[in-house]
Amino acid sequence: MPEHRETWQKRDGSANWKISTLPPVFQNESQREAWEKAGSIGAESVVSQDSSGPTSGQTATEPPTTKAGMRNWLANGRDVITPGLLYEVVPERFQDHVFSPAQRAAVLRVLAETEGVRYEGTVQDRAGRIGQAFSVTDASGGLPTKRVLIFDPQTGELLADEEQILGDTGKLQVAPNSVIGYVTFLTSERQP
Question: Polar residues bias: where (predicted)?
């Protein structure tokens, strides 16, 4: 289900967020008909919002600016962070942090030295922006997937994250190579 997500986080780690569902997007009329037959779930927008108090420990601190420090921060206490897990964690951190240029550079250095990361070239994201795409293929979630992160070549901002299922799709009843999830990052800014 498409959604619009807004997150505000203060320096102490406290946060507010608001999530609004958006109308479903269909690839063809038969998908729309199947959705309508199933009860048109998601036809009405649902808005949820909540907040959390200050946090302690690592999440309340600014992310580091060194490659080693950033890798440890992204690992969040794990001894090892696999390429698949890294591609899960990086978009999550971009959802709840506004990275400085030095921090974004550290994230990119971590990705650059990660085994299995492949440069996919220049691409256009779903918002029409041009970026540099880097992918990793992984099956840690049970099924083989390809995860693509698209970065702004000038600023290092994460523009988008897409996940595509490969080969055997199990019981998902989707065609191989279907995009099964994506996030487009439109705005990220620090407030006083």
Answer: 46-64
Task: Note the residue count of the chain.
Answer: 192
- The reply to whether 111 falls in a domain is no
Q: How far apart are CA 149 and CA 87, in angstroms?
A: 8
- Nearest Cα to 132, choosing from 101, 102, 111? 111
Nearest to 12 by CA among 51, 72, 56: 56
122: Cβ contacts below 8 Å, ≥ 6 apart: 130, 131, 132, 133, 153
Determine contact, residues 15/96, Cβ cutoff 8 Å.
Answer: yes
* CA-to-CA separations, 63 to 11, 27, 78, 163, in angstroms, rounded: 11, 39, 16, 25
Give average pLDDT by consecutive 10-residue segment, the chain, 192 residues.
77 79 83 87 85 65 91 90 92 90 96 95 95 94 91 96 88 83 85 63
Distance from C-alpha of 16 to C-alpha of 38, rounded to nearest angstrom: 33
Q: Note whether 47 and 20 are within 8 A (CB).
A: yes
Domain count, the chain: 1
In a domain, 2, yes or no: yes
How many Cα atoms within 13 Å fall on the side-chain side of residue 185?
Answer: 24
End-to-end CA, the chain: 33
